[in-house]
Design a protein that fits this description.
With 393 residues, this protein is of the alpha/beta class. The strands form two sheets. The chain has a seven-stranded parallel sheet with strand order 3-4-2-5-6-1-7, sandwiched between helices. A six-stranded parallel sheet has the order 8-13-12-9-11-10, with helices on both faces. The relative contact order is 0.12.
């Protein structure tokens, strides 16, 4: 039977108060299915897309479990995530859900955080550790963190973790935790690599699969634009970004270098734009995200990995300057818009080299009728075009 509210799942008044403060009313599908299993102490293998409430699905029952535990040295819960941006998102969500639990503390570590600040945090008692693999392994090897009292090990975005080459670091970190731990693995997809990792880490897990719902994308108007060369892509980009109804936009590119090139062209043309990729240091990335959230940047140009930490409700347009390698990445990308009941638009540029991926996207959209529009000729006097803005500078 489907639960209709959070009171059916959780009996902790202070946690329910935080949920009410946040305005949450009905648990999402992943929350309804995962929370009872986690509270039973079972290992969990869950598949659900980004934006379905996965963080609350594992953090709410984790907080409930913590309330029943006695204080110990070292963390009781470890949340391992692939990127710093995603870690910060989990940190923010955890802080909101635990806002009335003053005695429960969490620590966040990742590359880019100054060591003196990190070590000061680690010197105190804390219950929850949110970390990226590289920095956590450094701390384990320096014996600054002891995982011997860990009771719950949570892997978030496991597929992305493996795509980034973190399989050995994850296995090493797992080997430093007690075998009696409860393990939760959340992943958008479960290919052979992810399943092998799951089989090695989980014990008799409960499997939860929240299938993609076509209705989830009803608010996103999806378009495909066929292109012949890079110049044509820029002309289409100019045309789309000239729309005065754009609030904020995310442009996805396949390489770090190209994110910089696109962002530079847009800035030169007079738009408030910035790149976001893994080659930037933490201070640069944090500053860029802050500007985006404050509305100081209108267009962000990002790689897939960096976009995992972007959760901005005002994003009205998503533009795939390059088509992604998989349909799951396409779904994740367009899911950055059309959030919180707002409408959004997604544009994808495709060349002849993208024929295989193009077919998958067309089948997903189920309406390829506008897949071949050509760039329109625009008036020379149009002030909003990139070309005319460049000439005026």
């Amino acid at each position: 039977m489907t639960s209709k509210n959070f009171e059916d799942l959780i009996q902790e008044p202070l946690i329910l108060q935080a949920i009410q403060d946040l305005g949450f009313t009905t648990p999402s599908d992943i929350q309804q299915q995962a929370i009872p299993e986690v509270l039973k102490g079972k290992d969990l293998r869950a598949s659900a897309q980004t934006g379905t409430g996965k963080t609350a699905a594992f953090m709410l029952p984790s907080l409930c479990q913590l309330l029943k535990k006695s204080p110990t040295r070292g963390p009781k819960i470890l949340v391992l995530v692939p990127t710093r941006e995603l870690a910060m998102q989990v940190v923010e969500e955890t802080a909101k859900l635990s806002r009335h639990l003053c005695h429960i503390t969490s620590v966040f570590i990742c590359g880019g955080i100054p060591y003196h600040i990190q070590n000061r945090k680690l010197s105190r008692n804390f219950d929850i550790l949110i970390a990226t693999p590289g920095r956590l392994i450094e701390c384990l090897e320096e014996k600054r963190i002891d995982l011997s009292n860990l009771e719950m090990f949570i892997l978030d975005e496991a597929d992305r973790m493996l795509d980034m080459g973190f399989i050995e670091p994850v296995e090493y970190i797992a080997s430093m935790t007690p075998k009696s731990r409860q393990t939760l693995m959340f992943s958008a997809t479960y290919d052979k690599k992810v399943l092998r990792l799951a089989n090695s880490l989980l014990t008799n897990p409960t499997e939860i699969i929240v299938k993609k719902k076509a209705a989830s994308y009803d608010l996103i108007e999806q378009h495909i634009r066929k292109t012949n060369n890079l110049e044509q892509k820029y002309k289409l980009l100019d045309e789309i970004l000239s729309d005065p109804n754009i609030e904020q936009a995310i442009i996805f590119s396949s390489t770090q270098r190209q994110t910089e090139e696109i962002a530079d062209k847009l800035c030169y043309g007079g738009l408030k734009a910035a790149a976001l990729h893994g080659g930037m240091n933490q201070q640069q990335r944090t500053r860029t995200m802050k500007k985006l959230r404050n509305g100081d940047i209108k267009v962000i140009v990002a790689t897939d990995v960096m976009a995992r930490g972007i959760d901005i409700p005002e994003v009205s347009h998503v533009i795939n300057f390059d088509l992604p390698k998989t349909l799951d990445d396409y779904v994740h990308r367009i899911g950055r818009t059309g959030r919180a009941g707002a409408k959004g638009k997604a544009f994808s540029f495709a060349s002849s080299r993208d024929y295989q991926m193009l077919g998958e996207v067309e089948r997903f959209i189920d309406d390829p009728s506008d897949s071949s529009p050509k760039p329109q000729n625009r008036s020379r006097g149009r002030s909003r075009s990139l070309q005319s803005r460049r000439r005026s500078r």
